[in-house]
Amino acid sequence: MNVITKKSTVREILKKCFIHYHQDGLHKLITEIHDAILSHKVTFPNLEFCAETVFETLPENQHLPFCDAIHRLKTEGGNVLLGKILQKRLPFDYTQSIEKATEYIADADIWYVCDIIGERVYGYALLHEPQRTIQEIKRLSKHKTNWVLRALGAGTHYAIKKGLEKSHVKNMFTILLSFANAKDKEVRQGIGWAAKTTAKFHPDIIALYSADIKHPENTAYWFRKKIEIGLNRNAYAKKN
């Protein structure tokens, strides 16, 4: 398996892929991208560059057919393409981008699908359209699939780390608290990640909900432990 680390290499590969696309159509483009890029080890920034090039080059009505086909291939790198293309579509097709992300995540069979797409779509949307996205996350927090719930945590972690406004972090933490007794491993991983990040960046929000967090019937040990880790990291950062 080749390792592709240079944007210039990806650019040259994509030029050849799009020659095939213009000659033989979308199916051929997908085959070429799979064989020349997704079947190799490629750094995530270069996969995002690939996604941006596809987004800019393909007509809008072929974005989602491209994504559907990439999703069916079930490659790790393909999830970066899906997340980035859907992210780029958020400004002009918010609802469908969220729905498609949820569709792909719900069909996951491994954890990294949730984290890769969740950060790039849910997280980016939460950071840039917080009020609208908080309502979407409230709705999706009732989703029956544990992968989607994990992805909500991954997205929340991303948005907080990137500077989500404190008032919105507070609203998101109330949603995280609703999962504080979750038993499912994947849900605990995603929600715990977001809870830890909340504590690291906003210990004052944790203080507001200290009674709920300390309540043994409302909050499981795993959730309290994630909060503790986040608070310790905040304290360590202040020392340095």
TrEMBL record:
InterPro entries in alphabetical order: ARM-type_fold, DNA_alkylation
The protein's matches in Gene3D superfamilies, at most eight in alphabetical order, are given as: 1.25.10.90
Look up the domain of life of the source.
Bacteria
Designated name of the protein: DNA alkylation repair enzyme
